[in-house]
Amino acid sequence: MTTQATQDVLIVGAGLAGLALGRELARAGRRVTLLDKSRGVSGRSSTRRLAADRLELPLDHGARFFTARHPQTLAFVQEGLAAGWLREWTRSIPRWQGGTVVEEGGGHPRYAPPAGMNTLGRELGRGLKVELEAQVVRLSQVAGGWRAECGDGRSVEAAAAVLNLPAPQIVPLLEGAALDLSPFQAVAFDPCWAVGALLHADVAGADWPALRMQDHPALEWIAREHTKRSPTAPHTPALMLHARPDWTRQHLQDDKAQVAAALLEHARDVVGPLELRASFAHRWLYATPTVRYPHSHGWLPDSSLGWCGDWCTPDPHGPRVEAALLSGWALAEALTVRS
Length: 339
Known about the structure:
Order of helices and strands: EEHEEEHEEEEHEEEEHHEEEEHHEEEH
Number of domains: 2
Number of strands: 20
Largest sheet: 9 strands, mixed
CATH class of the largest domain: Alpha Beta
Distance between the termini: 32 Å
Structural class: alpha/beta
Number of helices: 8
Mean pLDDT: 94
Helix content: 10-25%
Strand content: 25-35%
Low-confidence stretches: none
């Protein structure tokens, strides 16, 4: 086992809340290490590059876009717009209901990086010490703090630990600690099947960037994904589909190819004929928090243990990208003020 020098703060999970937290702590002079089981940062703000016939496009199969209502998020948006890695995608996302497209009234800016939503994590994580493909299998209290042990033998110790994971994944990590796990056990999530597809041609007659599906038996979201990308860059038309939670639960264990075929057929019923170049399906077990932790973050000073994420409640607007950022920033403020 390889153990690193003790850090000030260990963050398990390099999703947006953990990265926002890590950036602020690092700016305050803390030694921070983030561990994540994936090959990239950003958590559910995830992007997959799909290629066919020498054409490639990033498809956001997790978070669809993000909004900015709070001063700190607005400042982050301005930072991205000025640097060029962020652009406003749209102010109107119509609703599909019973075969009719109903335009949205009073729209507001929705932002999406042209290179994909995982750009948010890459920008937040610049300069941070992030170890990827580091699956934490055990988290234990040790003298002076916490030790995280990874499946590949890596180990990190820190004076404080923060969990930026879906609450159901926190429970098994802390089962050996003398802690109240009920705050995590009370949190609930909806799952979601996501399907991305590259097309030979765009949807005929479509002038909408995306559709919010109302009362559809299978689909919750259809996006013309290429409309997020730079208008000056060459690209191929693409769709991103998100299934309803109830449909996802009914097909949770289905084969990915079967799910892709079924949801694309449902999409054809809505938008008309589709000629595919390539497609994929991805299952999110913890896609959308439905029962959330009632505070912006958690912190146990006696145990030096905290948690953050979009399943916390930093504002009343729901479990969005902005909620994840606000949760991480709120915990960072609490930790830096207390020190």
